[in-house]
Amino acid sequence: MKKVSIALLGCGTVGKGVIDLLAMNGPLIEEQLDTEITIKRVLIRDMPKYEQMELPDDILLTTDFADIVNDDEIEIVVEVMGSADFAKDCIEQCFKKGKSVVSANKDLIADYGMPLLKMAKECNVDFQFEASVAGGIPIVRPMYSSLNSNTMEEIIGIMNGTTNYILSNMTDTGMSYETALKEAQEKGYAEADPTNDVSGYDAGRKIAILATLGFHSALTFNDVSVEGIENIAQEDIQHAREMGYVIKLLAIARQDGDGISLNVHPAFIRKGHPLANVGGAYNAVYVRGNCVGDVMFYGQGAGSLPTASAVVSDVMNVILHCNINITGSRDFVWHDPKLKPQDSICAPYYLRMVVDNAPGVLSSISAVLAQHKISIRSLIQKDETTEIAEIVILIDSSAAGLVNQSLKEIEDLACVRKIANAIRVIEV
Q1: Any idea which of 41-55, 167-181, 385-399 has the lowest mean pLDDT?
Q2: 80 in a known ligand binding site
Q3: Are 283 and 165 in contact (CB under 8 A)?
Q4: What is the pLDDT, as a whole number, of residue 251?
Q5: Phi and psi at residue 72, in whole multiples of 5°?
Q6: In whole angstroms, how far apart are CA 387 and each of 65, 384, 412?
Q7: What is the mean pLDDT of residues 240-264?
Q8: Dihedral of alpha carbons 47, 51, 52, 56, sign
Q9: What domains, with CATH codes, occur in the chain?
Q10: Checking CA distances to 211, which of 226, 309, 356, 368 falls within 20 to 30 Å?
Q11: Where are the catalytic residues (predicted)?
Q12: Three-state DSSP class for 286?
């Protein structure tokens, strides 16, 4: 039986998951590949911390990357560190030494994925990153393999478990955003500083990766317009429910004759849509191809073993390529993207505003919308007090630029106290 030595860069949640998975399923993997996978070295930062961890005795711990890159027995390096710049340098050194790399680093792939793929081909090695998007859900490889006979039209996903957990709790239990976030932190779903998740940056990096592969275009995180969930209030959740919707943080990539748009934002989505029923910390990706139609991938988007499942699958794929002598031979077709201006992207909107409870308010607001040729689908006045009222308006599909300009003018009206929220409605 052939033997392959690999190394891990990092031994946190995912790295330990890789070690555990290979211990659990080693015989199954060997049976499929006729190859035994051995973890020879693991790069760590804090030697005393990991010396106390229960790791197999034959794994060599090191704090020096040179021990790995200069070890000719190591054929595949698994990068699970999370730091983009240091990881990029390590991966480039591995390529130059003829070592294939598997990465779970979404920050790295979103910013440097295409240059690294090109370099891997030049060095005749593989670079694979299934675990960089949606943890254990197989979605990266299908984008350039199983679905590659299609022109991809749309990718919509719930790609961040933290925000989905928060919004699900707000919907199911009536929690406020602040309470739901605190619970997510207590259960380990959210970091002490949750900005990367709740502000939409994490999902933005993932949609950039999928759109790059699905649209064959040179896209990065900088091409994504990002909005988080910090302003979602319980009032918005309740209004959505009354209208037959739920609120989800969606990552959306669309491609049509006018170009490509990449967005992350909260959205109203119909209760009957498959994505509306994705609860808790689960992830799902909804893909539309011009021939296959609609396909959805669903599962655990994070966690030690689910993510390790994707990592080890990539390792197995690299070994298969080595065994049949096609390592580094895959061509990727990239086009310079034509990005659609954000102001031109159209959608219906839910608008919630606090106004004076006085005659003429509705007509003043309606006049501003009419001036910008925005049609009102429905309008409800709620929660009247002696002095103020809450107005909820659903408008027909309108360009984002016109909506934003209208909201600025409405907010300047003397009778409007504040625009509480403006949320897009996704009709898929």
Answers
A1: 41-55
A2: no
A3: no
A4: 98
A5: -70, -15
A6: 67, 8, 18
A7: 96
A8: positive
A9: 2-134+304-323 (3.40.50.720), 140-300 (3.30.360.10), 343-426 (3.30.70.260)
A10: 309
A11: 206
A12: strand
Q: How far is CA 128 from CA 57, 106, 252, in A?
A: 28, 12, 23
The per-residue pLDDT for 385 is 67
pLDDT of residue 383 exceeding 70:
no
Does 133 count as an annotated binding residue?
no
Separation of alpha carbons 331 and 140, rounded Å: 16
Q: Is 13 annotated as a binding residue?
A: yes
Closest CA to 350 of 307, 398, 308: 398
Per-residue DSSP letters for 63-110? S-THHHHT-TTEEEEEE----HHHHHHHHHHHHHTT-EEEE--HHHHH
Give the start-end residues of each E strand in 271-426.
Answer: 282-289, 293-300, 346-356, 376-382, 388-399, 416-426
Q: Report whether 99 belongs to an annotated binding site.
A: no
DSSP state of 324: T
32: tokens are 């499929």
pLDDT 10s digits, 100-149: 999 999 999 999 999 999 999 999 999 999 999 998 899 999 998 899 99
Cβ atoms of 285 and 163 within 8 Å: the answer is no
pLDDT at 77 over 80: yes
Q: SS3 of 311, please? A: helix
Look at the block and give the residue holding tokens 């090695």: 125
Tokens coding 8:
């891990």
What average pLDDT does the segment 86-93 reach? 96
Residue 15 annotated as binding site: yes
Q: Is 10 annotated in some ligand binding site?
A: yes
Cα–Cα distance measured from residue 101 to residue 283, given in angstroms and rounded to the nearest whole number: 25
CA distance to 186, 225, 254, per residue, from 108 (Å): 28, 19, 23
CA 422 vs. chain centroid, Å, equals 22
List the structure tokens of 257: 């004759």
Cβ atoms within 10 Å of 201's Cβ, excluding its own: 19
Token duo for residue 282:
């689960």
Catalytically active residues are 206
Structure tokens, 4: 């392959």
Burial class of residue 384, CB neighbours in 10 A (0-12, 13-18, 19+): exposed
**Digit-coded pLDDT (tens) for 311-369:** 999 999 999 999 999 998 877 778 888 999 999 999 999 999 999 998 899 999 999 99
Q: Find the helix or strand (DSSP H, E) in which 365 lies.
A: helix 361-371
Q: Give dist(CA 140, CA 426) in Å, integer.
A: 24
The pLDDT value recorded for residue 338 is: 93
